[in-house]
Automatic annotation (TrEMBL), chains A, B:
Name under which the protein is recorded: Glycosyl hydrolase
Record bears the keyword Hydrolase: yes
GO molecular function: carbohydrate binding; glycosyltransferase activity; hydrolase activity, hydrolyzing O-glycosyl compounds
UniProt KW keywords: Glycosidase, Hydrolase
Family membership noted in the UniProt record: Belongs to the glycosyl hydrolase 65 family.
SUPFAM superfamilies in UniProt: Galactose mutarotase-like (SSF74650), Six-hairpin glycosidases (SSF48208)
Domain of life, source organism: Bacteria
Compositional bias annotation for Low complexity: 799-809
Length: 809, 809
């Protein structure tokens, strides 16, 4: 997309210089605005043409039956799907009674700009109607980071040449017809007109609609108010029906005398609150927004983003494309999570309906991995959402005959919605992924209250799951059988190494945390016997190696499977799951996405450097990279093992997933995890940042002053760096937040410079050397030359960048 | 059911002495009549009350979409379901304008008898209407084995006490309302009124309806003609509408002067033939039946069954229940297959709609195993049906990226209908099961023409599947990964031993058969290189043993899985798949049904006696027996390993599956494979009959005079016996057909007597000793005492007979 001729490369903005309807749907995702609570796709103000109209609210969904031709015990019966709520974006324009529609007349100019520092989407255009009237339109739009319920639009229209009579229709529209109803007729029936009207209202410049979903019983209210500035003869009229509420403004405009409309929109929804309560909630929010005013909202937005960029910016000298892409990525990651608060962060954020708006392990393993070190205040509320869903996870575990919590593979509310258990229920690793996010957040922030509260409970209930899920063999080795790791081309396997190592981390962390918070642990029924059993299981967990090949096995026996015949697979047959049956994928050596490689990222202390190098070289040629989650992990391990050029190519791929529409589905929404992966590739890859787990020696029962605990006054946060740049870059600089400190890291070809911008002191590890950094004394260290291993090669046709025009690493 | 007080134990009949509506649905299955082409459930003549009205035609089905909440490559999109076709059984009666309905009035007597030697279902009753009129009714019903398209009913009504005016309505009824529509609304929509009327006709005593299915486009015609005998004032009138064609006979009857109606019904269906062609077909068939007459049909039926019993009867002295049950079983197995000809034999035969009327491996592995030695003329046409579906199997294999043929796990037409691939597509063993049936039939009959024709092609295309499905490891061992064996609680496993041994047999047999028929093999593109590759793969196929435990592994690593916690499983939690998720079943040591044990039955030469004993003892306590296919195989191996009492208990269970309604679903149709299993348990279990595969030495390329080939003049058919009786039996006698000979085997506690009733000579093996039997010289041999191994035990609550009242072995 960024390679599309309409787009230009700029460091702080995404700029579209003309409109190409062929890529309209993708552009709606790229230009989506969100604060994590409200999501507005980048639809045109006038509503049409569109790829997919979309307004979403975090957690707002409809339910529908999940069909099975052959049902089984424990299959979820009910699915959940994000709903396109009442559209508050729409401002239609009539020019002398002709509707402004880009598909007709002549478009002399059309530009859109998304500015990552102002958080505003701007649009300017000049259009001549079929009848020959020319107007200039300028609109700006924001979804407020500060006022969670509020979005706003400034719309300005002005004639060119001579006077023109215009009518602006600023609307709230419910139940917009969508271009692609669901395949399943029952699902389509539920989602066709999902909102049942409860109340509509229009008076003066104020509009309001309240609806309720038919099956999930959620109530949504939307209110709008307007400022109108125009010539003296400007006429306003408001009207309302069940599914549309409308302010009509008519005026005769002259060149130099525009009509300006500011629209304040507020959303609210609830499963419990009454119609009057929702009504008052949105009216209150819209009144507050109007009182802040358009300029006030702009200022709040700029200030909020200013703080964010101060702590989060990544400077990439040497590649303007990736420089732009990583800021685009961080902006959208922030948008997905900023005010999500106690709601799920969907895989697509609130930018589209892909994956039905479901949340997966992407949230904890990718998105929170970035935010923990760039916007940590967003993390606890999102983990708080997981904690809120603990009752459902406990119930699910009980249904499955397991102890503790079994969090859902995909969900909006916390109930499992995965209809294919080998890649859903069996992907138990999500529980350890959640635990790791807890652990990471607690270690990076020292948020003791969180750890003692929700954190400990999440760690304990997931540890219980692992302890009950595994079993001991005759030799006492602890096995976890029948699970699916990140690689979805190898389901229901024995001792998936990623799962086992993450379970080990989970078990150890739960035991350590219980020791730090003995009273709270007792409340949760955790005693020394249980923590002892967890530690014991952790220490005896199975780790399979193929001694002949000298590599770890992704799962027991994996390296003895037949190798996928990549040579006979044509480039058009990727992604493989669309062209080959699961049974064939599962029984062969072919990896959809980083799995063992991802384990080497998340559990670095479990592997020696040599093992990492050998493992990476073995798995690289059998990894199809059929998931957008894969490239960033491969980038990190490629960088660590010295394949710097390859790491750079993978970084490109992660960075351009949506900007270049690499998987041809950006129209359905952005790949938020891959966007997060851009930061991961740069900071964990070329910055070599790792958060190390305390070793088993730190697990002893008398270790009450655990260095990794929340009581960690020295403040290492367990962070180490091993920076190394690819040839393409002359400099990489980034900031990470840890334990209240702000650490700035600047890497050039031969030197790394560490400075503490906020905080008194911090222990830092550079390529294995530990030193203490203090406030006013930046430290420079040389960057050792990397090893130069041989390129292991990729499956034919799966070179990184092979589908990325212009990648020149 | 047989333990229900309404049923009595008789050697040659199933007798019901009174009517209990609580078991009406089950009785409809037990009393079902079929010739394999037409199936009539044992519904009451008057149509109501009913459990499930049912008239089925072999192969006649409707199609419907298969829903998936998450679809995958290669998932079948279209399902097939047996359709209740036009009901030709119905004869309603009005007694003085009150409908005869057993639920009203008073039923003084009601008896039904299914006679296994006459093939006739008889019913006699005496009923007093609510208004006080008493009538006696006697009806008889048959579905002709000789006239494939024909069924017939004789109906007689006579007043008791005084004169009564009656009206008989003999009908053809299409689209009968069914009590249980499908769960899925789309399937229900398709099946609610599956037949679209094309033509209806009624004249004199003749009725006819022609319909067509809405989606599969199959046309079905039904015609009826009647003989009416009654008093002089008897009036007849025929009328017809789209979905009902009716002959009404009214008469005033006096005691001693009955009204008698004989109804001849003929069915025909086709996907291709025109309306006039179908019309003429059924009219011709009904005219032929009328010309044969009721007595003629009775005589034909008796004669056909006489021949069958001469070759198939099993005498069980010492247990009257099992004596009755095995004849009931053989009768229904014959009914399911007799005239199936080039159509599938469904798991339920044509006795109900269970499993949607689909055919599974049951056909080849269970049903044909019996018929090959008792009614071999039925076998080639059924294997011919499989051969007819070869194009679909080749196409399916290609879709899955495989060579050769991949036959469907469940189907009516030959297209895969399994919507859950781990227990469908992955159950590749069905291909070897088909090959084994080919092999068994050719060896037992010497039908050289069949082997050279359809047989060779089936062997070749299945061998190709195995060769392509497996792969060599670095040591040259041939592995088949990612497949599901008979045990559906262990899916997608590596080197399932049953599958591997059966694939080996398949590969070897294909190579041998290609050698015997070189010209035909060349036509199929088979050369020495390919047969060499098959033999080589066969010789190097993986066989996994757990050396510590000293047993074979059901699949690689199976014995290292966690053992299912049987002690914590309550009896109500069986069958386990209704109470536990697949993921948990798959990763633990729990066996749904005989798998390795079944391998020891089908591939006896692959195990030593000691291995069989150890394997049986290991797998017995972890076998849940949650499939009706399991007990008979366990019976056979229990008998072989000396657990004779246990073998007898399992024989009971197989025998009483439907008669005692052990799985509580006999209402959906009979378990034809378990019925076949009764014979398997007796003849292979206590008779110890085995068909041995030629050893690898017989595979050498110069072995052109292969003793097992169709040119086998000595006529062993590879048959051996190792008879041994349980304490419960004083004598077991059975007949097996082999190579045109009729061998009679009679076993008592200490002696086995072999006599050749038809044929000149036959080689027989008795407990390892080979001898030649000649026409007029029966041979007696002593029965060696069995080993007396310790009882390995079963899962708690899963003792055989625990749900079989009255089992006293």
């Amino acid at each position: 997309m960024i390679t599309h001729h309409c787009y230009t490369t700029e460091p702080w903005r995404l700029c579209e210089s003309e409109l190409d309807l062929d890529v309209l749907a993708q552009s709606e995702s790229l230009f989506a605005l969100s604060n994590g609570h409200i999501g507005w796709r980048g639809n045109l103000d006038e509503g049409e043409p569109h790829g997919l109209p979309g307004c979403y609210l975090g957690g707002f969904h409809e339910v529908h039956p999940l069909p099975y031709a052959e049902a089984g015990y424990g299959y979820p019966e009910s699915g959940q799907t994000v709903v396109n709520v009442t559209d508050g974006k729409i401002i239609r324009l009539l020019v002398e009674d002709e509707p402004f529609d880009l598909r007709y007349g002549h478009l002399a100019r059309h530009e859109r700009v998304l500015d990552f520092r102002t958080g505003v989407l701007s649009r300017t255009l000049e259009w001549t109607s079929p009848a020959g009237c020319t107007v200039r339109i300028a609109s700006r739009r924001l979804v407020s980071f500060v006022q969670r319920a509020v979005a706003a639009i400034e719309y300005r229209v002005e004639p060119v040449g001579g006077p023109v009579t215009v009518a602006l229709q600023s609307e709230l529209v419910a139940n917009e017809p969508l271009p692609s109803p669901a395949d399943d007729p029952r699902v389509a029936a539920v989602l066709d007109t999902p909102l049942c009207p409860e109340e509509d209202f229009a008076r003066d410049t104020r509009l309001r609609l309240v609806h309720r979903t038919g099956h999930s019983g959620l109530r949504v209210g939307v209110a709008a108010d307007h400022l109108v500035e125009g010539p003296e003869d400007t006429v306003r009229a408001a009207e309302s029906e069940a599914d549309v509420s409308r302010l009509v403004v008519t005026a005769t405009l002259r060149p130099g005398s525009p009509l300006r409309l500011v629209k304040f929109v507020a959303y609210g929804w609830s499963a419990q609150r009454s119609l009057p309560a929702i009504r008052d909630q949105v009216e209150g929010a819209v009144a507050a927004a109007r009182s802040t005013g358009w300029d006030g909202l702009l200022a709040q937005q700029r200030e909020h983003l200013g703080h964010f960029w101060q702590c989060a910016d990544v400077e990439v000298d040497g590649d303007a494309t990736v420089q732009q892409a990583v800021r685009f990525a961080l902006f959208h990651v922030l948008q997905a999570a900023a005010r999500a608060e106690r709601r799920a962060v969907p895989a697509k954020g609130l930018t589209g309906t892909g994956y039905d708006g479901h949340c997966f392990w992407d949230t904890e393993s990718y998105v929170l991995r970035v935010l923990t070190h760039t916007a940590p205040q967003t993390v606890a509320p999102i983990l708080g959402w997981r904690h809120d869903t603990l009752p459902a996870a406990l119930e699910r575990a009980a249904q499955l005959g397991l102890s503790g919590a079994a969090f859902p593979w995909r969900t909006i509310t916390g109930a499992e919605c995965s209809a294919y258990w080998p890649a859903g229920t069996a992907a138990f690793h999500i529980n350890a992924d959640i635990a790791e996010a807890v652990l990471r957040y607690a270690a990076a922030t020292g948020d003791d209250g969180f750890e003692r509260g929700q954190g400990l409970e999440l760690l304990v209930q997931t540890a219980r799951l692992w302890h009950g899920l595994g079993h001991r063999d005759a030799d006492g080795v602890f096995h976890i059988d029948g699970v699916t790791g990140p690689d979805e081309y190898s389901a229901v396997a024995r001792d998936n190494l990623y799962t086992n190592l993450m379970a080990r981390k989970n078990l150890r962390a739960a035991a350590r945390a219980a020791l730090r918070h003995p009273e709270r642990a007792r409340e949760l029924g955790v005693g020394p016997e249980e923590t002892g059993a967890w530690r014991d299981a952790a220490e005896r967990i199975a780790v399979h190696r193929d001694e002949t090949l000298g590599v770890h096995e992704q799962s027991a026996g994996f390296t003895r499977f037949e190798r996928w015949d990549f040579e006979a697979t044509s480039p058009e047959q990727y992604p493989l799951m669309l062209h080959f049956p699961y049974f064939d994928l599962y029984r062969k050596q072919v990896v959809k996405q980083a799995d063992l490689v991802w384990a080497m990222l998340t559990c670095p202390e479990a592997f020696t450097a040599e093992e990492k190098a050998r493992n990476f070289a073995y798995y690289e040629p059998i990894t199809a990279r059929d998931s957008s989650l894969s490239a960033c992990g491969q980038a990190v391990l490629a960088a660590e093992t010295g394949h710097l050029r390859l790491a750079w190519d993978y970084t490109w791929e992660a960075a351009l997933m949506d900007l270049a529409n690499l998987e041809h589905n950006t129209r359905d929404g952005l790949h938020i995890a891959s966007l997060a992966g851009t930061w991961i590739a740069l900071v964990l890859g070329f910055g070599g940042m790792r958060q190390y787990e305390p070793g088993p020696s730190d697990d002893s029962a008398d270790d009450t002053s655990d260095a990794e605990g929340a009581s960690d006054a020295a403040g290492t946060g367990g962070l180490g760096f091993a920076p190394r740049l690819p040839d393409a870059l002359s400099r990489l600089a980034f900031t990470v937040l840890v334990r209240g400190r702000t650490l700035h890291v600047e890497v050039t070809e031969d030197t790394a410079r560490y400075s503490l911008r906020v905080g008194e002191q911090l222990e830092v590890v550079h390529h294995g050397e530990k030193f203490t950094l203090t406030a006013d004394e930046p430290v420079e260290r040389p960057v050792p030359p990397p090893p130069r291993p041989a390129d292991p090669g990729r499956p034919p046709g799966r070179e990184p960048g092979s589908s990325v025009p212009g990648s020149d690493g």
